[in-house]
Amino acid sequence: MTPAVKVENLNFSFNAGSPVLSAVTFEVPEGECLGLIGPNGAGKSTLLLHLNGILPEKKSGRPSVFIFGEPVADEGIENIRRAVGFLFQNPDDQLFCPTVYEDVAFGPKQFGMPDSHIGEIVTDALAKVGLRGFERRSPHHLSLGEKQRVCLAGILASQPKILVLDEPTSDLDPRGKRELIHLLQSIPTTKIIASHDLELIVHLCSRTLVLDNGSIVAQGGTREILSDEQLMLAHGLEKPHILQHIHPHPRT
Amino acid sequence: MHHDFLDRYSRSDSPMHRLSAGAKMSGALLLIGAIITVPLRFGWFFLLAFGGLITAARVSRVPARFLVRRLLFLEPFVAGVAVLSLLREGGWIVFAGIVVRSTLSLATILLLTNTTSFSTMLEVLRKLRISPTFITILALMYRYLFVLVDEMERMQRARMSRSFTKGDRRLWRLLSTTIGELFVRSSERAERIYAAMCARGWQ
Amino acid sequence: MHIPDGFLDTKTVIATSALSVAGVAVALRHFKAEDQPRKIPLLGLTAAFVFASQMLNFPVAGGTSGHLIGAVLTAILLGPSAAVIVITSVLVVQCFLFADGGVSALGANVFNMALVAPLVGYAIYAAMHKVYSGIRGTIVAASFASWCSAVIASVCCTGELALSGTVPWSTAFVAMTGVHALIGIGEGLITALVLAALHATRPELLRAEDESGRPGDAKTFVLYGLLVVIGLLLFVVPFASPLPDGLERVAKDLGFDYTAAKHPALPAPFGAYRFPGIAGGAASAVVSGIVGVVAVFALSVGLSFVLFPRGGKTVQQKP
Of C6, C171, C193, which is closest to B102 when you measure between CB atoms? Predict the structure, then answer.
């Protein structure tokens, strides 16, 4: 079975600077929810941006990223972007249209869905995220949680096969966080979530990668990884409270 | 700053709101065109226009106090320039004419803005085949206007509470560092928005 | 300087609107040819930025306050065509959402503040910067050019108002130009300070000048020059100097009656080639104008030394 995401020996640096990603290799089977954790500056966001081809800006040489077997390259990038729905960290950067309706409709319009269907698609997407009736609202008057859900609706409207989320719960209050977790649990799509919020990772992700200094330093079952206190501390993280009672076998 | 007040009532409902944006925009333009070209001696026209605007205002259910306050707020600017006209011979008539025309036009625009949302107006422009680049730029500007104004206010407050130099030097320094920083943040945000647009299939 | 509705007569509205539409069209075409789509969000955000910056007031003499127009600053940061588009967007939003500037006057406001201000200002900046490079040169050129842009824009504004018969040229000219000469100092100062601040923190944002030389550029600048010159010929020159009789008659036939717009009771319009003696009202106006320009230039140079006493790095050029 073709994995949803295959990353093979990915190396990256900005403009001949020091390497930001080194020899990153992993696979994500379809339907799985993968967590990506690591200290600040580890390269998590940079890694995620390779999954839909925003990085590298110039794609030359052998592709290192494959989405359902298709290489992420300049040719066919539109299909990649349609397949990979990306939720950016700051909803204000992503909610760039004057009304909610236009924003949710943006993706479908760009991907060529016929105008007659778009109204329906938008309504469905908004309903999925629990924002029925928000079509004519102006983004500026929404709460952060609502903005984020509109962004999610906009992504879901294009029916992606993979969801990539970059720090989805930063800035959310506890209720917003709870609602987001419920929402994501109800979406069966393949997901990759980068987050500092280890509780979120525990709730949603079956497997987790630990990234530090641009390299993968550990990967495995979420509970196993996150309850390994030594590993967590060594990479600028902490064992989350909800796993405090778990003491795994020492890792070799 | 109250972000609402720009087009605070543009999203309410009334028979005026439900009229098509194209109709309202062309109506407003035609009316303003008439207001500035019809010679002053046809006083009845201006009274008619005035009456028509009042009726439209009532139908639109936009609160009268709001409209009047906005009008009054804008009047000093009109008067300021209009005063120059008093310097020429026959100035009083010119002055009166300007005030009448300006005020009626202002009222027309106020009504248009508060019964039509900006994005529907942009939609009309799009249908008229106006440059899509320009329309996208206008839409982005409108969307991020308040975001930037908020940011600027926050920066001003933060800086004012940290700086202790007195007087004018402080004011100029404050102004320029705020503006410089705002530009930096705007261009960085623009990069992120570009990435978000591309991620959703743009261009 | 936003002209409201009702101040301009029909022929002026038509003339300014035609010039503006042409100018913005040229700018859009040049922008699309020269800049990738990735600049589009930058222009949108910069327009919002200019708008937000214009909300900051600074004190001008006598209790009035002025605010930044930002035309030259934008042109230096993003290029002249981008500046035209940005300032036009600001004016459009101000007109429709704030009723700041009339709909019929949008053409005139765009011509003054979105075409003349950034284009003439940038031309002055570029010419000066070629002669006087480095960061000090940038400061001198930018502050002087910004002042000029404010003054020239206000002169065009006065011309349009006078041509419409709304104000008498001579007195309006003195009032408007005087006020904007002061506001222009603020504009020049803020532009310089902002550029200095950016040079210190993010020098890469200061646009490199050797981006000219692309095939579309020459044609674009010729078109811009044409539009500005036509505007000046229509709205300013005839007031500043008497037209030859033949031309005057043609203008009258077309509805452009310059003599009617000049107040008969006030001194004759000044012409650069007429010096009836220094005591004459016209010549002293010219002399004071020259003195003003030189003074502002000197101030600009002084400012550059205050900000960069030791010179500092040159503006980064693209490799």
Answer: C6
